[in-house]
Amino acid sequence: MKKTSNIKDYSLKIEHLCKNYDDICAVDDVSFETKHGEIIALLGPNGAGKSTLMNMIAGYLAPTNGNIFIENNNIATNDIITKKSIGFLSEGSPLYADMTVKLFLKYIIELKLETDTDDIAKRKEICQSELERIVEVANISSVLNQKIETLSKGYVRRVGFAQSIIGNPNILLLDEPTDGLDPNQKDYMKALIKDLGKGKTIIISTHLLDEAQTVASRIILINKGKIVADGNLKNILKSTKTTSLEDAFRVLTM
Ligand code: ADP
Ligand code: MG
User: Fold this and answer.
1) What's the Rg (C-alpha) of the chain?
2) Where are the chain's structural domains?
3) Please, what CATH class does the domain formed by 1-81+206-254 belong to?
4) What is the pTM of this model?
5) Is the minimum distance from the CB of 42 to ligand 1 under 6 angstroms?
6) Which residues of the chain have pLDDT under 70?
7) Residue 61 contacts by C-beta under 8 Å, 6 or more apart in sequence?
8) What is the pLDDT of residues 40-96, one digit of tens each?
9) Which residues in 10-50 belong to E strands, given as ranges?
10) Distance CA 60, CA 114 (A)
11) Ligand 1, residues 20, 21, 60, 91: which to mutate, most atoms within 8 A of Cβ?
């Protein structure tokens, strides 16, 4: 029997997405679908349009054209769906500088976390246990009482990451997640992303080739706002007749 396609086979569907900033076309007719369990590296040179694309998927930036669907919901008409199912670490993680890490995370948990109880004590308990969970996953217990403005860049990034996993969203968008981390922290973050990726859709943006190769099961290469390759490493090497991602990157982004 012919298999009928199920609309929810995809976690995310991007259709003909465009974003213009005045006369700059930052994202140019981008379309792709993602599945649950996929870790995707959005790879491209600086200025390729990665952050613009992620900001649109996260609902921070309105597209000039095109549509974004999460399962069968168009986020333009059902924005609450975006907020519930997407965790987002934006570029540079804008955080409240004069808050302590703990206060900041508690504040976002209270805004984001849905509980089905009106019982204040119960709600507090749920928020506290979510705080403990994300602090452990992001490995930031040592800076909990520090003001965000006093943190190193690496810790700021990890606090931003902790914020992105509040409520355990099905789709995680991480814009340059290892930016500012030292080599050990980078390895920790890469292992964490791989582990979290089981059953979720994770899109990381990066201009680092080794990160794309070691973390992702699929690479979407973007250049000047357009997708120039989409597939696993083997397919990308085959289609570009190259033997390394470095060479493929060079061929595709020249
Ligand atoms: P990437 O994240 O891949 O480095 P961006 O999405 O930040 O790329 O930028 C894509 C293009 O859009 C670049 O040419 C950049 O200069 C331009 N751009 C990004 N944000 C803005 C903005 N707010 N106003 C005008 N141009 C912008
Ligand atoms: Mg960027």
Assistant:
1) 19
2) 1-81+206-254
3) alpha beta
4) 0.93
5) no
6) 1-8
7) 19, 52, 55
8) 999 999 999 999 999 999 988 999 999 999 988 898 887 777 778 899 999 977 788
9) 12-21, 24-34, 39-43
10) 21
11) 21
